[in-house]
Input
Amino acid sequence: MAKIQTPRPIRGTQDMIGETADRFAHVVETFERVRKLYGFRRIELPVFEATAVFSRSLGETTDVVSKEMYSFEDRGGDSLTLRPEFTAGIARAYITEGWQQYAPLKVATHGPLFRYERPQKGRYRQFHQIDAEIIGAAEPLADAELLIFADHLLKELGISEGVTLTLNTLGDAASREAWRAALVAHFDGHRAALSEDSLTRLEKNPMRILDSKDPRDQAVVADAPDIDACLTDEARVFFERVTDGLKAAGVAWQRNARLVRGLDYYRHTAFEFITDRLGAQGTVLGGGRYDGLIETLGGPATPAVGWAAGIERLAMLLDEAPAATLDVVIALEDDTMLAQALTGLAALRGAGLSADSVTSGSPRKRFDKAAKIPARALVSVGSRDGGLYLNIHCDDVALAGRIDALMRVGV
RNA sequence: GCGAUCGUAGCUCAGCUGGUUAGAGCGCUGGUUUGUGGUACCAGAGGUCACGGGUUCGAACCCCGUCGGUCGCCCCA
Output
């Protein structure tokens, strides 16, 4: 048979094993645990949707829709898209599945997302996020609770050191429009000082100039108007309520008056937990209030707020890999005792002890091989005078006794 | 789409200003101690030096191109 060339993995996808996979699983497990503490219900969603779900919600940012999404036609000629984010799909489900009946609805999910981008540190084409949303709650307490949840999660993961919550308000629709107009006027008056990239941003997405990395833009950005002057009284009060909630819960934060969202449906609270430990990808967890989104998708006007965080990025920030230590590892040193070893293995696992065995290769080498597998106890199974002979190496005397009893079941 | 950088056993890497049959550790396979042993000792298998051209008496090493990885720019829902 002709040897074929093994297909390569797709650019930007990952195959995880060992420490990388353990870190990933630890993030997901911690998220699942903490999310229950806050009463967020687990939801499951399709990985692909009608392209309109995303193109409609993303709207004006044509680059994102046309160049960054994995879209394709299915056999029926419908345009489908691999989800590039969770929020639009959740909003669609909220409308089409009648989830209004549960409002206000606190939901959480996690899974793969897809964006057609050039991979770099902490950025992949198939990547994974955890996600939490509160839909149908207009009050600032919802924003605060989501932030308290996020802060708690980062602390549980042990990565809150070196990660700071940066917070801003985009105000209500009126405040946002006023600020946008003030920014355009400011930047338009300083065209000569701006970089080429920012000149095109001025046409397409002027608020983005605020987070330009080009040093030429820094001076112009520095004395750009803050939103504070543009805020309506209602918007100002809303933001105060959010920060009051954070204060009461003991969550530290920093104001970043330059933090923006490109999409029109964002209102009020916008936030990012950022770090300088991930190179150019500084955002660990981000979100905000998107009161306009569900209406954009043809649903009733519905207030909503949420956040998402990259699992890979969180996993990279974990100080040490979660231990993958077994309770017991067995070295079968005499093949005539195979059946007894298997019986013992089943008894150990039935009693809730994690266990694995080394039963292949040269019998005399199995002990050394087993000794290299991290475990609390190392058990060699051999024979003496035709009968079972056990040798248990374990610092924990009580555990050793338990293992000895379980390994002799049925003898 | 653009830029920088890298590509040598399954893995992590050596390999001098270009000079014989390309090296180590780990892993894998086999053997040794007639042993209750904590990662031992010996041996073996495993390499189109990413791929394709070029320069040269001679290229893993120099030049060009292609592909791939990494990091950054753009973008960031």
In short: The mean pLDDT of chain A is 93. Residues 18-172+232-317 of chain A form a domain with the BirA Bifunctional Protein; domain 2 fold (CATH 3.30.930.10). Residues 18-37 of chain A form the longest helix (20 residues). The first strand of chain A starts at residue 41 and ends at 42.
